[in-house]
Amino acid sequence: MSKLFRSVILGPPGSGKGTISSRLVRDFGLTHLSSGDILRAQINKGAGKPSEAALQAKGFMEKGQLVPDNLMVRLVLNELSHISEQSWLLDGFPRTVSQAQALTQELSIDSVIRLIIPFDVLTKRLEGRWVHPASGRVYNLEWNPPKVEGKDDDTGEALVQRDDDKPETVRARLQLYTKLTEPVFGFYKNLGILQDFSGTETNQIWPHVHRYVQFKLTHTHGHAHGHSHHPPPQQHEHKEQQG
Ligand code: G5P
Ligand code: MG
């Protein structure tokens, strides 16, 4: 039986899912899959033409709305099927209870990391965000600026701002998060695999997430890929103090 680790990272827009994911990839070699990055890659298909579904998704994203569950589930499960032999970290999916149910039907998840960040700091963070679309690397003009303005540190390629990072779109995204994504945490709490991390700064939260994932990796006994289920792991407190 292969020893695979499957985890999910969730949190409101700008909470640092991408930032923390890249540190987890660096330290633990997990394969990172961001549902937002998958969508953006489908929409900006280099020379190729985006599919009808991708164009449909683009309309929802630009308004700060969620892409419909059936499309999203199909897209993400398809991507996951290509990495079924790897340990992975799924970022930004599931974002509704219906998506969570669809994921659970297909796969057994070891842990769900929830980032709890006060909403008032998020809009400002997103105004200063610049991204490298090809790698998903994320910068912030104030917090972690690129070495050369407007260029990715590793490749030197141009950085871009996301269309949905305008303040009014961010507000819509935050509202939907409260309405549609918060209920997902009840679902995972009941399964006993939810772990909360709260704080205002990624660098405060990060050591706790690191310790938690290290713990989970050494205590996950692995499962064959596909439909295996094992008892929920024990909960451990690594909660960041607010303020
Ligand atoms: P995405 O792409 O998943 P969101 O809204 O969930 O988008 P986002 O915006 O990508 O999440 P993040 O990854 O949580 O945020 O945050 P990040 O990029 O790491 O950090 C944000 C900024 O803050 C960066 O500039 C970073 O450098 C900076 N930063 C980090 N930490 C700190 C700190 O401590 N201090 C400071 N000052 N700055 C910091 O989804 C996009 C859209 O796709 C669709 C939806 O339309 C969605 O709106 N979509 C889905 N639709 C349906 N179902 C799904 N499952 C979907 N997934 C995506
Ligand atoms: Mg992200």
Structure description:
- This protein is α/β, with parallel strands linked by helices.
- The chain contains 8 helices and 7 strands.
- The strands form 2 sheets. It has a 5-stranded parallel β-sheet. Strands 5-6 form a two-stranded antiparallel ribbon.
- Strand 5 and strand 6 form a beta hairpin.
- Helix 4 runs parallel beside helix 5.
- The longest helix has 25 residues.
- The protein starts with 5 loop residues before the first strand and ends in a 24-residue tail after the last helix.
- Bound molecules: P1-(5'-adenosyl)-P5-(5'-guanosyl) pentaphosphate (G5P) and magnesium ion (MG).
- The site of magnesium ion has 4 residues, from helix 1.
Fold blueprint:
Blueprint: E1 6-10, H1 17-28, E2 31-34, H2 35-43, H3 52-62, H4 69-82, E3 88-91, H5 97-106, E4 111-116, H6 122-127, E5 129-132, E6 137-140, H7 167-191, E7 194-198, H8 202-219
Parallel strand pairs: 1-3, 1-4, 2-3, 4-7
Antiparallel strand pairs: 5-6
Helix pairs in contact: 1-8, 2-3, 4-5
The structure holds P1-(5'-adenosyl)-P5-(5'-guanosyl) pentaphosphate and magnesium ion (MG).
What radius of gyration results from the CA coordinates? Answer: 17 Å
Helix content: 40-55%
Major sheet size, sense and barrel closure = 5 strands, parallel
Identify the quaternary structure here: single chain
Shape: globular
Low-confidence runs: 224-243
> What are the bound molecules?
P1-(5'-adenosyl)-P5-(5'-guanosyl) pentaphosphate, magnesium ion
| Beta strand % | 5-15%
Compact summary:
This protein is an alpha/beta fold and 243 residues long. 43% of the residues lie in helices and 13% in strands. The longest helix has 25 residues.
